[in-house]
Amino acid sequence: MRKWDTPDDLALLHRVLTTLREQRVLEPGRLGLPDPLDLRGLSVPTVELCKQIGLATMIVSSVTGRQEFSDAALRRIDFSRARLDFSAWNNCCFEDVRFDNAKLQNVRFFGCRFVDCSFRSTSLRDASFSVGRNGTETEIIRTVFEKADFKGASCHNPVLRSTSFLNCKLDGFVFDSALCDSVDIAGEYDELTFRGMPGEPDRNRLRVDLSEASVTWLHADYGVDLAAMTPPADSSCIVITERLRAINVLNARLSQEAGDTGKEVARLLMAIYSDRSMSPMEPSQKTFAITHGQIRSFLETDDEAVTKPVFEKIRSIADQEGFLAIKK
Q: In the CATH scheme, what is the code of domain 75-321?
């Protein structure tokens, strides 16, 4: 793997950047190099390093500093272990591009398209996947995020199709107005958060497979429809519809039928999901999820002899009253 600190390496980097900016298509054949194009470990050098090794002023100006690209296409590129921090990509297309073990901190993707890409052990801290020019949405198709770090990252209106999130760090990350179609999420999560787009029922239909996931808090608001979701295979998640009517029925019956523990859980459920909550959900939110982990959190115990009966009582009431959105 190149170290990107020799004249030959930096001359290649200059060719790569020039190709992206002028021809706007970067693929192995255009540079006469083997397929896939090996840019592993690529790191944009400082001005001082370029001066030390005697690069021409023109090359120095092109390979140092914050990099920004527009309307470029990148195909069959290996960016494994590359450092692309603070770069910005506008309306770019990435096809069969590897970002494994790469640093993409504070990177901005505006209206970009990713097809058959991989982000394994990638740092996406404070990165952004957002809308581009003329409202173009970022699309992510047949792409894998595995053990990727999304701390501080954000997205807005992404389109996610046939894409996987496997054992990623997603705490604090919000799938904001995301269209999720055949999305797999696997691993253990304290929180997963989805925010919908009111008035867009098809976009809000969460076609997400959580069968290989364990989730403590599953947050959904602004019209997200959980009825199409595949819940965790361990039956630890209940999806309930007709939110406002259901929460009132659950409150009444849990308080009457599940003793003091049921009353406490009912009180906390009302505090989160009713229209009398301190932070009420958007009125278009009709479905919500209750997890066994959530009940453990409410009752501050891992004793299943305490938590399991309450959780199963919620399932039983929802089933009897016709509120179960998903029946297994």
A: 2.160.20
